[in-house]
Amino acid sequence: MDIHPHWMRDGAGPLYQQLYQYFREEIQSRRIPPGTRLPAVRALSQSLLLSKTTVETAYHQLLAEGYIESRERSGFYVVEWEEEIVGAEPRARSVPFLPSTQRAGTKPDAHGEQIVPIRYDFHQARVDARHFPYDLWRRYSNQCMQLENREILYYGDPQGEPVLREQIAAYLQKARGVHASTDAVVLGAGTQLLIHLLCCLFRLDRPVVAMEEPGYNGVRVVFQQHGFPIIPIPLEEDGIRLDALEESEAPLVYITPSHQEPTGAVMPYAKRTRLLQWAARTGAYIIEDDYDGEFRYQSKPIPSLQGMDQAGRVIYLGTFSKSLLPSIRISYMVLPPELLRVYQEQLSEYDQSCSRIHQETLALFMKSGQWERHIRRMRTIYGRKHQAMLSSLQAAFGQRVRIKGQNAGLSMTVEVPSALTPEELASRALSAGIRVYPTTKKWLTSPAEQPPAFQFGFGGLSLAEIEEGIRLLAQVWTPYLGSG
């Protein structure tokens, strides 16, 4: 069918929202009747001179709200619904007229300037979805959803499904040297939720929390919202400064020793030993966030702090968000004996936040051996992307930038000598269709003399996109760079 929206010249809003509103009102008024197949994304984008992303986003909004359905290998179709749901009178169309300068997918910002669509997004937490084992995951998910396994439809174990906790404990012992029993593993829908649970465990004392400076702001905000005072501890080249940590007298410290967030520093074995001695001597707890410990590219991972701990002072956190997919929302923590007892006494009434279906699917995935195969494959893929990012930065910027935190994880930090602020540099990049991420938010108090720094993620980009994106970024930034 042909689509000829009557755009209104005085309208406003993102292009995808305008297109979504047009279709919604046409469907509600039954001018597009149930059962109608909507135009293909490519065809509609060419017809209306809109980007494919704009059309896809509008369609997915209609899909999410139940106006259309997706039929495999066929397209999008308008669904059947009851007449009274629609309402008696169709509302006036609110999709504005699109000037020709906007129809290529750009849109004006608050100052009326055109913003180029994002071509290269260097977000530090993006993963490679192209190599996700879709067929295997679907197979194990279908295996869980058999008629004889009806129990999966009900509430599960509040601490997490035992079959998955068993697999996680065995994997951590083998891969990260973590001493974990099935009973000591607690599952949660993301690291922030696990930190929330820990805040509940410590809420009576509400202790001061020491955190790396800079550090992971996503965890810091949870502590702050629970009313826990934060003491920022400066970093050295190999991680948190132990003398400053001792001086803080903090009874609780959150650290990312295997790949410091955001600088990428790796805490060496000797320093880990001294940190554990401090915790045993003072009775402090260490929250060890091993968020991407699977990925090191030039040496084997250093054993976890928890695996070296003899005094029961380490709370170990891990996640499947980097190693598998963030959308399955499964993270885990391993509690030391004393805290496990408190957890089971005080938080046993909390329902499990992770999908039971995803838990059992992941358990089958791990039990079959596919998990470790996936990790080995992704380590190779990310290793190539890591090298591509490093080579591209060096070729494009040479000695003018300082690269930190390479050889591990899914990102590296780049310090840029420039008189512009990080936000100004990010804005220049955005004008060329490149999204970069300043580390400003990682600081509780950002020092005035700190050069602009950015976290460059490479997990979600192809090798060609990494090279092309960095080359284009160098063209945009070069006029604003100092000598380094």
UniProtKB/TrEMBL annotation:
Provide this UniProt record's keywords sorted from A to Z.
Aminotransferase, DNA-binding, Pyridoxal phosphate, Transcription, Transcription regulation, Transferase
State the taxonomy lineage: Bacteria, Bacillati, Bacillota, Bacilli, Bacillales
One GO molecular function term of this record is: DNA binding
Per the database record, which ranges form the HTH gntR-type domain? 13-81
| InterPro entries, sorted | Aminotransferase_I/II_large (IPR004839), HTH_trans_reg/aminotransferase (IPR051446), PyrdxlP-dep_Trfase (IPR015424), PyrdxlP-dep_Trfase_major (IPR015421), Tscrpt_reg_HTH_GntR (IPR000524), WH-like_DNA-bd_sf (IPR036388), WH_DNA-bd_sf (IPR036390)
The protein's organism comes out as Brevibacillus composti
Q: Which cofactor does it need?
A: pyridoxal 5'-phosphate
Q: Where is the chain membrane-spanning?
A: none
Its protein name is PLP-dependent aminotransferase family protein
Family assignment?
Answer: In the C-terminal section; belongs to the class-I pyridoxal-phosphate-dependent aminotransferase family.
Domain of life, source organism: Bacteria
Transcription regulation: is it a keyword of this entry? yes
